């Protein structure tokens, strides 16, 4: 077994050791473990069973990590993406009124296309068709959208008939606990504390329990209830009118996970001279996990920036990812505790807020002097939270970019696919499609 591990994962060639890879896999596990609480809590807002999504989240993460580790041999963690899944829940289901079954059907179609494209070079062409400025604006916008959802969920932002929204009252224990949780997670993140999000959630759970806000279950260990309630629940009856949504899921998932993967790859010194070896196998991991994840009952998956925790500690091979995947499977038995923690929004909301802030920080990489690219990017960014829709943000960004670039006489810089996307979104806005 040891010889197989050394040979398959190229342990010696990448100047690492089995012990280092196992320890880094454990570190990545703790850094990303919060997803088993936050992701099911998100989908519960769409009417899905917590137990079903809980199991789907664990299985999708394990599948993604196993594929990434065994086939691509990279220490990158794959799990359901909070940004895109917040879009699935709050835009597709809550805002637009589709059922969660329709939403999963939509995600399945996007994931199937994603999987096919990952087998070809067309995926890279599709990603490259979107200007870098729009990628930045869309990523930052998703961050604002996720942060806004967290603020709303935690009671820090509430409805107001005169100003649409206003600040919630800190006299409310739940709102005050959310505010404290945000500050705590920020401090832990700034201090580079390992597994800062998870540690923050644990501390806030203890505080909530001491205040009587969190009721611990009678049994801490048991299998999820209604585990089959979400499996194969997807429907395709409304798929013909959800094509723009499928396009958004496809595009956002593709360039989000590609960007994260390359960023972590550079940090791990996998990328050399601008080349990412076996990139197609790595890109297949998130596509494969998304495909099976939607069948099991969760949204699209993507590579997680938290993988950098293990990379910074020395992870260089897929053994770290496989270790994380194995550990995730063991979490199936702590379902009662996870469900209890998820029942208190003040514990999970800070994670959404901090994750959103981290994504929004991408806005700093925009060229603030180049107005032609700046305006469409910022427009895409602010339209997402203000219209409560990632689709609207992507559409406004693409349409405005094409219009401004043509007006500036630089129409040759526009990729043909971007013309196609912009026309499609414009026709959808005008209800012509």
What does this structure look like?
The protein has helices at residues 2-8, 18-32, 35-44, 50-72, 82-95, 100-118, 122-128, 132-153, 173-190, 196-210, 243-267, 279-296, 307-312, 318-329, 335-342, 345-360, 371-387, 390-407, 416-429, and strands at residues 78-80, 157-160, 164-167, 301-303. It is mostly helical. Helix 3 (35-44) crosses helix 15 (335-342). The longest helix has 25 residues, at 243-267.
Question: Which terms summarize this structure?
Answer:
433 residues; two-stranded antiparallel sheet; mainly alpha; single chain
Biggest sheet character: 2 strands, antiparallel
Please state the CA-atom Rg, rounded to the nearest Å: 21 Å
Note the total helix count. 19
Trace the largest sheet across and list its strands.
Answer: 1-4
Q: Roughly what is the average pLDDT, rounded to an integer?
A: 85
List the helices and strands in order.
HHHHEHHHHEEHHHHEHHHHHHH
Low-confidence runs: none
Distance between the termini: 57 Å
Gross geometry: globular
- Which assembly state applies to the chains in this document? single chain
Helix content: 55-70%
Structural class of the helices, strands and pairings? mainly alpha
The total of beta strands comes to 4
Estimated share of beta-strand residues = under 5%
């Amino acid at each position: 077994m040891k010889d197989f591990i050394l040979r398959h994962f190229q342990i010696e060639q990448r100047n690492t050791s089995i012990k280092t890879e196992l320890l880094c896999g454990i570190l990545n596990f703790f850094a990303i473990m919060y997803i088993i609480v936050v992701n099911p809590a998100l989908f519960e807002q769409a009417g899905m069973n917590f137990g079903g999504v809980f199991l789907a989240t664990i299985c999708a993460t394990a599948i993604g990590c196993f594929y990434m580790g065994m086939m691509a041999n990279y220490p990158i963690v794959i799990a359901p993406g909070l940004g895109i899944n917040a879009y699935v829940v709050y835009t597709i289901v809550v805002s637009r009124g589709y059922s969660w079954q329709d939403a999963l059907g939509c995600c399945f179609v996007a994931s199937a296309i994603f999987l096919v494209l990952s087998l070809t070079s067309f995926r890279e062409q599709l990603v490259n068709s979107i200007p870098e400025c729009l990628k930045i604006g869309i990523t930052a916008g998703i961050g604002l959208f996720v942060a806004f959802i967290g603020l709303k969920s935690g009671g820090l932002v509430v409805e107001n008939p005169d100003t649409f929204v206003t600040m919630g009252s800190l006299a409310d224990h739940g709102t005050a606990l959310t505010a404290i949780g945000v500050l705590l997670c920020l401090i832990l993140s700034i201090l580079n504390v390992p597994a800062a999000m998870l540690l923050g959630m644990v501390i806030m759970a203890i505080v909530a329990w001491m205040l009587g806000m969190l009721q611990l279950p009678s049994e801490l260990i048991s299998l999820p209830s209604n585990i089959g309630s979400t499996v194969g629940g997807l429907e395709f009856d409304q798929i013909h009118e959800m094509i723009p949504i499928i396009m958004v899921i496809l595009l956002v998932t593709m360039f989000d996970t590609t960007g994260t993967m390359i960023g972590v790859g550079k940090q791990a010194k996998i990328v050399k001279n601008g080349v990412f070896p076996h990139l197609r196998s790595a890109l297949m991991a998130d596509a494969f996990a998304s495909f099976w994840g939607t069948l099991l009952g969760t949204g699209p998956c993507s590579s997680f920036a938290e993988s950098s925790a293990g990379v910074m500690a020395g992870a260089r091979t897929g053994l770290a990812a496989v270790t994380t995947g194995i550990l995730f499977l063991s979490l199936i038995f702590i379902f009662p505790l996870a469900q209890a923690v998820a029942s208190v929004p003040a514990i999970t909301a800070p994670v959404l807020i901090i994750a959103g802030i981290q994504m929004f920080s991408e806005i700093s990489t925009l060229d603030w002097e180049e107005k032609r690219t700046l305006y469409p990017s910022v427009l895409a960014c602010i339209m997402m939270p203000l219209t409560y829709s990632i689709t609207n943000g992507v559409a406004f960004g693409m349409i405005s970019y094409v219009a401004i670039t043509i007006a500036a006489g630089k129409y040759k810089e526009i990729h043909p696919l971007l013309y196609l996307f912009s026309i499609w979104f414009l026709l959808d806005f005008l209800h012509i499609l």
